[in-house]
Every structure is written in C-alpha cells, then in structure tokens.
Amino acid sequence: MTDVTPTPGIHHVTCVAGDPQRNLDFWVETLGLRLVKRSINQDDSGTYHFFFADAEGTPGTSMTFFPWENLSQGKVGSGQVSRTAFRVPEGSLDYWESRFDEYGVEYDDRVERFGETVLPFVDPDGLPVELVETVIPDDDPTVPWTEFVPAEHAIRGFHSVTLWLANPDATMDLLRTMGLEEVGTEESPGDTPGDERTRFAAAGPVGSYVDVLPTIQAGRQGHGTVHHVAFQTPTDDDQAAMRAAVRGEGLNPTQQIDRHWFRSVYFREHNGVLFELATSDPGYDSDEPLEDLGGRLVLPGEFEGQRDRIEAQLPDVTVPRADPVEADD
C-alpha cells in the first residue's frame, strides 16, 4: 500500500445557501467570522462563492457557501454531512446564547457529547451547525477575528463534522486509510436518527474530528445542506499519496484541479458524501494582502478576462462592517 501522510483534519466545508446578502450578514456579523474571499463558483460563474474563516484564513477554519438562489430547500439525510461543528473557548456558550437571542437565531438546548458541551443551532437557510466548548491552547494556529465578536468568545475553526451514513463500515475503513483513528463510541439519544455515534480523530489541532452515525433517512441537496467536506493534504505529494490510497479503496478520485487558493481532488466516498482533498497552499492571501481579504470580488485565472460579464450577472452585496467606536473627547 502507498505510504500516506495522515490528514491533519478538515480543511474547509462548503454548503448551499439561498440569498447571498442574508448569508453574508449572518456569517460575518452574527457569527463573527471574517469574509476572507469573495469570489465565484468556478463551475458556475454566475454564482458567488463566499469564504468565511478566522482572521488569516488558516486551514481548518473556512466555511464556504454557494448561494444558489434558484434552488429549493434541502433536507439533511443519509449520504450527507449532517452537522458542522465549530470550536469556541470554554465558558463562552452563555455569550453565544445571549447573542443568538439578540439576533433571533434558532438554537436548541445544550447537549453533552464525548465530555464536551455542544450548542446546536441553524443558520438562516436551515443549515445545522454546532458550537463546541473546548480548551484553546496558547499555541493554537487559529487567529480570532474580532470585528464583531470579542476574542474570548470568537469561533476558532472547525471542531468536527458528522456524517449520516446508511452503511458506515466502508466509510469508517476509508477514514482509517486517511489516517484518522477511532477514539470512541457513545449513544446519541434524541440527536439523530442513529442510536450510536462513532468518533474518529485526526492528528491536527483544528477540525480534528469526524463523527459517524448510521441512518437511512432520505435527504436531498438544496438550501441548508452541505455540498462537500474537504480534508487537508498539505502538500502535492501528500495529496498524490492520499489519492492513490483512495483509489485503492475502490473509489474514483478526480485528477488534481487548481482552485487558485488550494489544489483539489474530489471523490464520493462509499455512502455518497462528496469528499475533497485540499492542499495548504497557496492560501487566501496569495492574491490579496492579508489586511484586504474579502474586500473585492476576486476572479481567478481566466475568469478575470470575463469580469464585466460576470459582475453583470451577480447581485449587489454589502459586506457587514462594525461601526467605528468614537473616541472620548
């Protein structure tokens, strides 16, 4: 078998939204993430692609969206990422519940999972999301974005994704091939259609966990669902080895595709969830200064020559900005 460098964890998660302005308002202002890239879907240039992350767009922090307004509401079900969870510092869930009350965000009661406290909620498109209280170490690679949320409560990258699968065994074997280790199983009453949650852990500090739950509940893609989950394969060599290992599992990964801020390989795992392998470089600051990330519409590669046509198709949006604090006289 090809030697595989274990994935450090999740690189990004890409979801389907509806109204682009509502999506921007919620993920930037309400949740306090930074818009680190404002671009287009490279397979559908008439649609935005928004990237929300920490202050520097660190791998393992970016939640991205295709706001396809003409799609219908989706339904979470088997063969999908059913939940995306973010890390927040210990003791911050009181702040988040108060903030959700202020902004009218729908959330559920806290639950305990593998010894951690979880606050489930949904975004305006009905996307299931969770905040998980964790200890953020001093050497954590993430950098909090503090324009709307103070650092002591700010989201600090991914915690986990939960996969709903009809036949989990083959997918669990794939996760082991990718270098994740099974670290525990516990009952999951009232949380999902499945009755037992199995957790896998990657070696990296951010986006480390993948939870697997069995279910045959049918789903459909649309607003409020995850399009795909990307795992870090930091270098081209790492990615090539992982691609070979995935082929060895009987799956059919694509060739490498240049996505401008990372290079990608895509494949559907055994239960139909779309997985991506993504490199760490060149990063979101490869075509914009760090201080200007998300400030303009970036059109990668050949799309720049089509700017007039593309901009004419896209709806106008305004990125939320915090009101400046007036200095005392």
From TrEMBL:
Residues 9-134, 157-280 form the VOC domain. Residues 307-329 are annotated as: Disordered. InterPro entries: Extradiol_RC_dioxygenase, Glyas_Bleomycin-R_OHBP_Dase, Glyas_Fos-R_dOase_dom, VOC_core. PANTHER family: RING-CLEAVING DIOXYGENASE MHQE-RELATED. This is VOC family protein.
